[in-house]
User: Fold these one by one.
Assistant:
Number 1:
Amino acid sequence: MPSDKKVAFISGANRGIGFETARQLGQKGVTVIVGARTLQEAKAAADKLTSENIEAHAVVLDVTKEADRKAAAAFVADKFGKLDILINNAGIGGEGGLLNAHTIETTESEFQTVFNTNLYSVVAVTREFLPLLKKSAAGRIVNLSSILGSLTLQAMPNSPIAPMKAFAYNASKTALNQFTVHLAIELKDTNIKVNSAHPGWVKTELGTQYAQMEIADGAKTSVDLALIGPDGPNGKFIHAGKELPW
């Protein structure tokens, strides 16, 4: 049933930045719905959050599966009647990690796999949840991007991200940023705001143990964008409250 309490859905929320995002939103009084590829993973994460006095629910969501996407949206519709926050957190890296520079050698298989999760499925998940977000007084969509998708910084001589040229992954995040820009403009006359978040170089499975930031800090940008007010950014690329170049 509809209520005044904010409801957030986070994909890929069973671990890493997604789980920490759910935790931090829950600590701020938001009801969180944990999306994960298996019910076991989703339930384990939701149970852990519940043990911390956070209202959390488990939902199966393999973002690449249409049936999962439709079932997840149906669950939210039946349980809450609306959705206030959608955080498209689920994503994957390419072959060989972020430092394994390969461009022309990128395989068709890598392109298809990475783009299917990091772009096509984000669009599809958002499409399913958009009717519920339109029922919110202040809908918020946060797309987990990466500074590696910045064309400006990738092309800059002596850029700090210059060594990271994993083409399929980087290109998928550039394309995701385009989705953010286009959707924000399409929804500009609604109460919904859409932004891309760069979490930072975080100590996750993808970021590796050599990353500079802890997971708790990596989740903060997503949480902040999920809770922005009516004067907050829209159609922007943000890290730690600062706008990044496309």
Number 2:
Amino acid sequence: MSEFFELAVKYLPSLFQAALQYTIPLTIMSFSLGLVFALVTALIRLSQPPKNEWAAAFLKILKGVAAFYVWTFRSTPLIVQLFIVFYGLPNAHISFFANAWISAITVFSLNTGAYASETIRAAILSVPYVQKEAGLSLGMSNWEVYLYVVLPQAARISIPPLSNSLISLLKDTSLASVITIVEMFYLSQQIAAQNYRILSMYILVAIVYAFLTSILSIGQHYLEAYTSRFAQ
């Protein structure tokens, strides 16, 4: 036990530093972009066909693209997506993705967006239609109804599942090690290869992950409490 405590004192600062330099920024950037992809995808899939024939045809194409995007990223493993983007695309002369950070953020954000879009779509559909009708009766446009009536309520409903997506993304960033990003799991592997304390190092990195996810869970609790006060 004393040996494990000594290892914790020696290596936990390095693991937390890796979390601050790599894991947390990767999580924040990927989740932020993922939310943008999710909201756009959800709104496209929920849009009603306009009266204009050409606009309706264009929207139909957009819906098909959005549905294919969601299907693709929900049907394939995240690690396979990372390998395709980081190793496969540069091999196909798309050198932009030879950068590990660009590849990781691209894959994590698109993957998160695919799952979160279904969460947002379900949250929007859960808002009673009578409230949309009330907004329209007050002279609001469709976009104003979505912006001021539907989306605020949908945001409150979607907080728990989106928080789960954020926590999952934080843990999934450990897969960035397979494309050479030295986040904290990769660092723990390097240290374990040097000191041969494999179990102890993996326990230490698990403790760091548990600490970070606990902070996110506490934040989720307070955010739910804050937004729920408007529903009373």
Number 3:
Amino acid sequence: MIVIVDERELVKDGYHSLFGREGVASAGFGSSDFGEWVSTAADDDLKAVRAFLIGECSSEFVSPRKIRDRTSAPVIALSDQHSLENTLRLFESGVDDVIRKPVHIREILARISAISRRVQEDKPYSEFGAMRIFMDGRDLEIDGEPLPLPRRERRILEFLASNAGRRVTKTQVFNAIYGIFDEEVEENVVESHISKLRKKLREKLGYDPIDSKRFLGYRLVT
């Protein structure tokens, strides 16, 4: 999930729509609401956040360094001002990157992936047996052959891969794929997506790479 912080409803709604077209969940906040939320949100909720996009907002409530105290997710500033002074000021505030607007939504996602790779490892993918799982929206590869998946199933697989070695709950998967504040979709939809994903992977691999434990959640195995 991507969290957008901006005082302008039009900006938040616009990014929410654009991310939705890419199959990426997002949530928008104003400054004061965000400041309260990031200070009190449960750790599981923060783990579902892929990145924070900071636009026009009050520095009194939105501090990149305070965000960093709670999560290692990238913090990216969206800048309307094309000046060196403003860019340097934003970097000094503690953000990981500054993106000048206008910008295509796919460039934002690519920058988020690049920052995450630098934090974790240099490779733009994770390997699990015969599977090569990319984190930038590219199709899964099995034994070098691409396997196109629906966007939700691909995002679930990416989320499982990004949590290699850890078991994630159905709630964590739902929050990462649909967003913490999506009340129009039932959490049980995750089970349907994962069931379809497991069937496709089983047919290609000859085994089920998603280990499921009741009440404990899911993890990838080789």
Number 4:
Amino acid sequence: MTITITHTPTDGTLVEGTTRGDGTNTILRTAGFRWFRTLGQWGIAGSRDRDPQRVRIEQAAAALRAAGHTVEVIIDDTHRDPATVEADRATRARDRADALAATADRRRDQADAAWEADRRATAALPPGGEPIKIGHHSEHRHRRGIEKAQQAMGRAVAAERDAGEAARRADVASRATDRRYNPETVKNRIDGLEAEQRADQRELDGHTRTLFTTGDGTKVVDSRTPATGERRDLLTARMAARAEDIAYWAEIRRQQIAAGQTGDYSRDTIHPGDQVLYRGQWFTVRRANPKTVSIPSIVGGSWTDTIGYHKLTGHRPTSTPR
């Protein structure tokens, strides 16, 4: 039977054609794949709408072939537009939150039932905390009743703990999309994407940089020639896809600024002596830097802290003319 390793933007990297006991589990796990219980398939975690991890895929395919399996690799390295990707992500997040909420409800029902069983077991004991009558015909029944009550309480405590954890996970999942679109997170994402774009552009164009200077003044440089062939094609396609991502998130940030969810602060708008709001507390600006403001120590020390403009949530300009 042919084992097929496929990569698509919609589903990520998945493996089809494996069966229990065929030895593929050890090979795939060693190659960095994991078992997706809900899908009943092996795959690479977090590979949806990402560039295919070709090295890992080819290593897995080679190991499977060496073990005697017939392997086919199918890779679709196209990219979906960011709006579609985000809509799918939000849908999956809602589905996961709903599933976890349902699990939390079941765990709560189980905890309630366990506490009721504990109540019944405790009620069955002799009233008033009567001690065990050693040698009496009731001794065995009394000891057994205490044991059942202790076991019931243990089950109730465990069920309560499971219910609390299920509720916590459901709450975290329900806020996944909100966290992803947090204004600070959005700005950090844009900065990260732009940094990746610059790095790929340097590789695409080639570059020369000074690594260090020796004691006699000789500069040791690292020179890279422009990318060519398949590598150049890969970089070009990756940068085009990333440019769409940057444009998408830049528009989200523009909308957040327009809606007053965050400020469009910079050294052009914030100056020394102004006050800025950071994590619910106002600080006086000591210096406005290209990407950050310097403020008095957040914890009350004698030093200064630097805060990125995108992390500020308020601004009070000084009335002093400039």
